[in-house]
Amino acid sequence: MEQIVDLYDCIIIGAGPGGLQAAIYLGRYNRKALLIDRGGGRTHHAKYIENFLTQKEISGKQIIKLGLKQANGFNVKIEKGLVTKVVKKEYFEVATINNLYLSKFVIVSSGVYDNLPNIENLHKFLGISIFTCIDCDGYRTTNKKLIVIGNHIKSVHLAIAMKEMFTKDITLLLYTDKAPEEYKQELEDEHIPLIISKPVKIIGDSKMEAIELHDGRKIECEVIMLHFGYKLNDFFLSEFNLKRDQNGFKFIVNQNYESSISGLYIVGPLNQGNDQVVIAAGEGAVAAIDIKKRLLEH
Ligand SMILES: Cc1cc2nc3c(=O)[nH]c(=O)nc-3n(C[C@H](O)[C@H](O)[C@H](O)COP(=O)(O)OP(=O)(O)OC[C@H]3O[C@@H](n4cnc5c(N)ncnc54)[C@H](O)[C@@H]3O)c2cc1C
């Protein structure tokens, strides 16, 4: 049974870097802020973050743990829960499975989730030697035996970019029905072998050794870059007809990360910006500063 709990200045949905940074700012304005998180987002799966200022290497889990402690230290209320619906009446109503909360502003920082192919042992190596993002982990493939696996023509461009920056030893494995004729020559010129097939299993105990294809062939590799895109964690926003990009995918926001619904901010990879810890955190800060100004106008 749903019950009204309280009126907040701002409810933040998602305790990734975007939501945590916003929470820290709002807490330090002495605003009444609530952070709701279901646990286990993308940052949680990032084992080695090496591109975050001042951190030689830190895990996503550690960033979240430190961020929650810091936000809590500035009196942000933190609730574990799955947000199921957000609507706007006089105030925003944010529903979780057990509660209903009211808020003047909402920051959505619920992130995205990767489309992952069904390959045996994939999760064992994910984040260690299987990666999904060139900006995050391209560097970790430097001078290693790499297979780029994708289901899209753009995977060809990814393979070529990986070769220019990180490693010459690349095989492109396309999960498509037929070879992309228009790119065959370019791949040949780049000396990137192309295989059209379905991988079924990663071979290796503590270290990745090879990938097995459905016809039994095995291709040696040390690292894999997957290219299957991702989906947005946005189902709870379905009551709004929010503006999206021309593909109907990412949300369109203004320079303060406010969406087409007044008072509803969207930060992190749900909007058209890049998908990085430092960027999500920066966007969370910008949104919180804008909300600070608007609360003063009330
Ligand atoms: C394997 C891997 C490695 C990465 N490496 C790096 C790297 O080295 N450097 C880098 O900058 N970035 C890296 N990233 C990307 C980085 O994690 C994202 O850019 C960053 O997470 C975006 O932050 P966010 O706050 O938008 O979302 P997230 O970190 O995804 O956090 C979203 C949070 O919202 C919660 N949530 C979702 N839906 C709901 C709901 N309905 N109700 C309540 N809570 C909800 C989730 O549980 C999660 O805790 C990596 C990502 C992966 C997967």
Q: Which descriptors would you attach to this protein?
A:
298 residues, alpha/beta, FAD/NAD(P)-binding domain, 2 domains, 7-stranded mixed sheet, 5-stranded parallel sheet, binds flavin-adenine dinucleotide
Gist of the model:
By secondary structure, the chain is an alpha/beta fold. The chain has two domains: 4-113 and 230-297, FAD/NAD(P)-binding domain; 116-227, FAD/NAD(P)-binding domain (3-Layer(bba) Sandwich), CATH 3.50.50.
Give the topology, please.
Layout: E1 4-13, H1 17-28, E2 33-37, H2 42-45, H3 60-73, E3 77-80, E4 83-88, E5 92-96, E6 100-108, E7 112-114, H4 122-125, E8 130-131, H5 134-137, E9 146-150, H6 154-165, E10 170-174, H7 181-189, E11 194-196, E12 199-203, E13 210-213, E14 218-220, E15 223-227, E16 230-232, E17 264-266, H8 277-297
Parallel strand pairs: 1-2, 1-6, 2-3, 6-17, 8-15, 9-10, 9-15, 10-11
Antiparallel strand pairs: 4-5, 5-6, 7-16, 12-13, 13-14
Helix pairs in contact: 1-3, 1-8
The structure holds flavin-adenine dinucleotide.
Q: What is the strand tally?
A: 17
Q: Please name the CATH architecture of the largest domain.
A: 3-Layer(bba) Sandwich
* Rg, alpha carbons: 21 Å
Task: List the secondary-structure elements in sequence, H or E.
Answer: EHEHHEEEEEHEHEHEHEEEEEEEH
Low-confidence stretches: none
**CATH class category label of the largest domain:** Alpha Beta
Mean pLDDT: 95
Q: How many structural domains are formed by the residues?
A: 2
Bound molecules: flavin-adenine dinucleotide
CATH topology of the largest domain: FAD/NAD(P)-binding domain
